[in-house]
Amino acid sequence: ITRGERTPTGTHAFDELCQALDIEHRLTKPRRPQTNGMVERFNGRISEVLATHRFDSREALEATIHRYVWLYNHHIPQKALGHVPPIEAMKRWYAEKPELFIKVPRNRPGPDSYCLSPSALIVACTAGRCAIFSTKRAKAGNCPRSICTKAVQRAHT
Q: Which long-range contacts (CB under 8 A, 24 or more apart) does 84-89 make?
C-alpha cells in the first residue's frame, strides 16, 4: 500500500464477495482520478454523450449507453491493454489462463462471428467518418457483409 491509499474495510458486501472469491480489491487514492484513468475516461465519454444528446425516453438513453459500451469493448483500443480493445485483451487472457474464467468468452478466437441485420443498425457520421452501432445480434450467415456498407450509404441519403 502506498502512502495516501485507502484500504477496503472488509465490512461491505462487495468486500466480502471479493474475499470469498479470493479477489484482491484495491481502491484508488482519494481525489486522484488519474490513478483510475481507464474508468475515468470511460465515464467522461459517457458524460459527453449525455451532455450533447437529448433522449425521448429512458429506453432511448439505455439503448445509446448499451451501444456505446459495445463499441468501447469491441472497437476502442486501450493503452493499458496493449493498444487492443478490452474484448481482445480478454480473449488473450483466456487463451493464456483459462482457469481464471468462470465463463468462456464467446466466439473465440478471432473476431466475433455475429452479423447485424439492417434493422439492428444505427449509423452515426461525423466529419466524414461513420460508426455503426448495433441494437441486436444475429447469427453469422444470416446477412451478407455488405449490410454495413448499405447502412452507411442509407445514412448519407
A: 87/112
List, for residues 3-52, the tens digit of each pLDDT value: 455 566 667 888 888 888 888 888 777 777 777 777 788 888 888 888 88
Grid cell in block for residue 99: 482457469
CB atoms within 10 A of CB 51: 7
Q: Is residue 128 part of a domain?
A: yes
Domain that includes residue 120, residue range: 113-157
Distinct helix (H) and strand (E) counts, the chain: 5, 2
Tell me the pTM: 0.49
Tell me whether residue 126 is in a domain. yes
Dist. CA 128–CA 125, nearest whole Å: 6
Greatest alpha-carbon span in the chain = 58
